[in-house]
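Narrative of activities, Objective 1.

The group set out to show that a structural description can be obtained from nothing but a protein's sequence at a throughput compatible with the screening campaign. Below is one input-output pair from the validation batch, recorded exactly as produced.
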Amino acid sequence: MKATEILKTDHRNVLDLIEQAKKMKERNALLLQRLYDNLKVHTTCEEQIFYPAVDGLDHHDQVQQSTSEHREIDDLLEEVMVIRAQKGMNVLLQEINALGEKLQQHIRREEALLFPEAEDQLAGSLDDLGSRIEQMKIDLRTSEYGMAA
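Output recorded for this entry:
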């Protein structure tokens, strides 16, 4: 499968987990852990495999912006994980909403700008990149982020 297709599927999955989290009536540690793990696996694959390939196509500014957005998303995600047990549900849901908004902005920009360029300029190597992403996902899920399945 092409790298861009895999990453788009990841985007849909993460947004679905955000929507589920927004509807929580009480804390759901498993759901929040799945969100955390899936996001971490996804951003790691993008940053270690996809972004370097796209960066080589003279899209350095877009890659830098995406990487910067990942840091912001990571910060919001870490905040969600910290407050999940320490603050009230309203505060938790506010943080989840903020994370969801940032994710949606990031995904829209990435899929509108980076992915079409990659599909055009990396057409011959997207399947190979996809295979590498799939292998990295397996490796990460069996080591650092075991609940990400």
